[in-house]
């Protein structure tokens, strides 16, 4: 099965499972939430169990803000601006043209999409190469060991 088709099947299930686990209202939009830690953990597990390469990147900026994305590449691959990534919570901050749903494109295209939507620069940067704090991690949050 093609990666995009797997994501279109699996991501809604991951969103629904987390809505239930967190006891949120049934129609919560997880793509506008702040649970990238749990969502990317679940997606990484789902992709790995299907034999699809997945790297769970932790991004941080100087003021301590952080974000996880999934890069569709081998765990030991060198991160690149052209990596195909999936961002499960791209709409969590207020922006002029706030969307809904996950984004699945190359890294630069996602950053361009968020810039065009009016996202703050610090938020956009949390997808870039320069903010990668850990190339791959299976720690649930940046605070766990």
Task: Quickly list its features.
145 residues, alpha+beta
What layout of secondary structure does this protein have?
Layout: H1 3-21, H2 36-49, E1 55-60, E2 66-71, E3 84-87, E4 103-106, H3 107-116, H4 121-125, E5 132-134
Antiparallel strand pairs: 1-2, 1-5, 2-3, 3-4
Helix pairs in contact: 1-2
Strand segment tally: 5
In one word, what is the shape? globular
Beta percentage is 15-25%
Total helical segments: 4
Distance between the termini: 34 Å
Main β-sheet: number of strands, strand sense, barrel status? 5 strands, antiparallel
In short:
With 145 residues, the protein is of the alpha+beta class. The protein has helices at 3-21, 36-49, 107-116, 121-125, and strands spanning 55-60, 66-71, 84-87, 103-106, 132-134. It has a five-stranded antiparallel sheet.
Describe the protein in words.
By secondary structure, the chain is an alpha+beta fold. It is built from four helices and five strands. Strands 4-3-2-1-5 form a five-stranded antiparallel sheet.
């Amino acid at each position: 099965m093609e990666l995009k088709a797997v994501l279109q099947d699996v991501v809604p299930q991951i969103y629904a499972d987390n809505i239930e686990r967190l006891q949120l209202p049934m129609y919560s939009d997880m793509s506008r939430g702040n649970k990238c830690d749990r969502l990317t953990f679940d997606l990484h597990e789902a992709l790995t169990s299907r034999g699809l390469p997945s790297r769970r990147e932790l991004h941080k900026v100087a003021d301590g803000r952080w974000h996880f994305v999934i890069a569709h590449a081998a765990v030991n691959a060198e991160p690149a601006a052209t990596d195909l990534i999936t961002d499960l919570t791209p709409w969590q901050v207020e922006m002029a043209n706030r969307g809904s749903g996950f984004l699945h494109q190359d890294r630069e295209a996602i950053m361009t999409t968020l810039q065009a939507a009016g996202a703050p620069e610090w938020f956009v940067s949390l997808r870039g190469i320069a903010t990668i704090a850990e190339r791959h991690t299976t720690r649930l949050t940046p605070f766990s060991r």
